[in-house]
């Protein structure tokens, strides 16, 4: 059926086809790369390459805020905070926290401002929070906690990334303070 010569021809033709594909790839790269500048996009018009579109992630605003004057302190932001804007921001928190007096994944937040930490009866707090139960949730403590929960209190069960904008934190705390 198949003798040695037939197998040699088959292996040779497969190797030849692979070599042909390799050479065609090199030749096509040579056709599309300009000898003047080389690289991606060379020879396709003059000047630098520009991005066709950008997606605003807000990173530029953060850089400007860091580069500019020092941001106002939390007390100043909290004094002018807008509780109705805080209610809109609270929707991020509402996945785990309720404000109707019942607990969800997290404890209810009615009256949380100036309340003792880890003081909601029947809620299973983390060891990290139970260790500071003698403290209270001042607006400054809440602001530091919701900015970066894991950074403020390592070992917390709260799996929230945080609110990076100081205005959002002040508005949410003003909203929580306005609740009965």
Can you tag this structure with a few keywords?
single chain, mainly alpha, Cytochrome Bc1 Complex, Chain D, domain 2, 8 helices, about 0% strand
Layout of strands and helices, then pairs:
Layout: H1 4-32, H2 59-67, H3 74-79, H4 83-89, H5 127-130, H6 139-147, H7 149-152, H8 166-178
Helix pairs in contact: 4-8, 6-8
In words, what does this structure look like?
This protein has a domain at 73-178: Cytochrome c-like domain (Cytochrome Bc1 Complex, Chain D, domain 2). The longest helix has 29 residues, at 4-32. The chain has helices spanning 4-32, 59-67, 74-79, 83-89, 127-130, 139-147, 149-152, 166-178. The chain contains 8 helices and no strands. By secondary structure, the chain is mainly alpha-helical. The radius of gyration is 31 Å and the shape is elongated.
Short description:
The chain has 180 residues and is an all-alpha fold. It has helices at 4-32, 59-67, 74-79, 83-89, 127-130, 139-147, 149-152, 166-178.
What summary fits the major beta sheet? none
Content of β-strand = under 5%
Q: Which CATH-level-2 architecture of the domain at 73-178?
A: Orthogonal Bundle
CATH topology of the domain at 73-178: Cytochrome Bc1 Complex, Chain D, domain 2
CATH class of the domain at 73-178: Mainly Alpha
Strand segment tally: 0
Number of helices: 8
Radius of gyration: 31 Å
**What is the CA-CA span between the terminal residues?**
92 Å
Cα shape: elongated
Structural class given helices, strands, pairing? mainly alpha
- Please identify which CATH superfamily of the domain at 73-178 we are dealing with: Cytochrome c-like domain
Please bin the fraction of helical residues.
40-55%
Order of helices and strands: HHHHHHHH
Query: Which oligomerization state do the chains in this entry correspond to?
Result: single chain
Average pLDDT level: 84
- Low-pLDDT runs: none
